[in-house]
Amino acid sequence: MILKENSNSIFNELYDEDFFYYFIKNFPNLNRTNILFGNSLIYKLNTVKKIDEYLNTKNMKTELVIMDNNVSMDKIRYLINFVNLKSNNLKLIFLDLDILNIYSLNSILKTIEEPPSNVIFFLSKSNYFVLPTILSRASKFNVIPKTERIIDLLIKKYHFSLNMSEFIVFGLNNSLEDIDYFISNFTNISKKMKNNIEINEDFYNLFRMFLNLKDYNINEFLDISEMLYKKYESFFTFKIFIKFISLFFRDLFISFYNDYFKQKIFFKMIFKEWENYIVNFKIDNNSFLLKISEFLNKLVIFNNKQIYMKFNKKILYTFLILNVYEILRDFYYGNYNLNY
User: Fold this and answer.
1) Do 244 and 130 share a structural domain?
2) Which of 14, 74, 298, 318 gives 20 to 30 Å between its CA and that of 230?
3) SS3 43
4) Which CATH number do you get for residue 123?
5) Among 98, 145, 148, 101, residue whose Cα is nearest residue 124
């Protein structure tokens, strides 16, 4: 199966208005180094492109350099030379810190910390782990897509239901790249109802198996992990599965608290009949949360594409699926003592 990473995104029109208007209001008297925190690269890049377009309308000559993929040492050297080259143009540099290794970062560190007066750095970061020397010199902004804007766009462009839109947006933490990828690869036009969108069958079946363990054995979970590996071994797929597994665990946990029924995004979308299954689980909050936290912490390392690519994908998928199976099995059959 060819998994599609959609470059012609419907989200190209979305940008962060708060940061955009902050820039307009304070330009040119603003920091030359800016860190844009948030898990959506498309959204941050759209915003910087919008700033570049605005400056051009004011008859300012700009040069926009985007480094968001496969940044080699040669490219870093080029960037350093470009930044230090004398010019009357305003140079806007969009640099994704997540893809830089320690050697690349060290080589450009001084340039980032003390850029020339005609250079503005926009440093993209998906988490808050940034070198203190950069943090101390940079202005910091949370540039995160607004949930209601994404949901509204999905309903208008794809004619998704509200439930489907909420499921995708909340499940993928507002990451426009992940949402785009999920729609391209894990949704289908319904065979029963024209223009109705359905969740991909492989995706659906995996979580149906998780919720109804008594009908399946460990070999069947090994089989589905191998199928997923062979059909969907992309880094984006693995990351998406982790996000939806986290949402699945969240809904499973809050199912035991009546006050939160309306917040069960996952079960509301995937399992309309979840009440028939949930009684099989014997969950106590302390043991469950500890077990899930330990498991998800092990997976954090694989959020980095470079690290993911170094590992055997078959082993990774087997590790992911079997760990979920074992955690659920213990609670399904009551292997933990209840603490109520």
Assistant:
1) no
2) 298
3) helix
4) 3.40.50.300
5) 98
CA of residue 143 relative to chain centroid, distance: 13
Count up the domains in the chain and report the number: 2
Burial class (CB in 10 A: 0-12, 13-18, 19+), 266: buried
Judge contact between 48 and 123, C-beta under 8 A: no
Sequence-ordered list of residues with C-beta below 8 angstroms from that of 83, at least 6 positions apart, any chain: 91, 93, 111, 115, 116, 119
Q: What is the pTM of this model?
A: 0.79
Residue 304 structural domain: 200-332
Exposure string of 109-141, with b = 16+ CB inside 10 Å and e = fewer, is eebbbebeebbbbbbbbbeeebeeebeeebebb
Residues shown for the chain: 340
First to last CA, the chain: 47
Task: At 272, list the tokens.
Answer: 């309309």
Spatial contact of 179 and 150, defined as CB atoms under 8 Å apart: yes
pLDDT digits (tens, 9 = 90+) for 14-73: 999 999 999 999 999 999 999 999 989 999 999 999 999 999 999 999 999 998 777 788
Indicate if 45 and 138 belong to the same structural domain. yes
Instruction: For residue 72, give the 3-state DSSP assignment.
Output: coil
CB 254 within 8 A of CB 264: yes
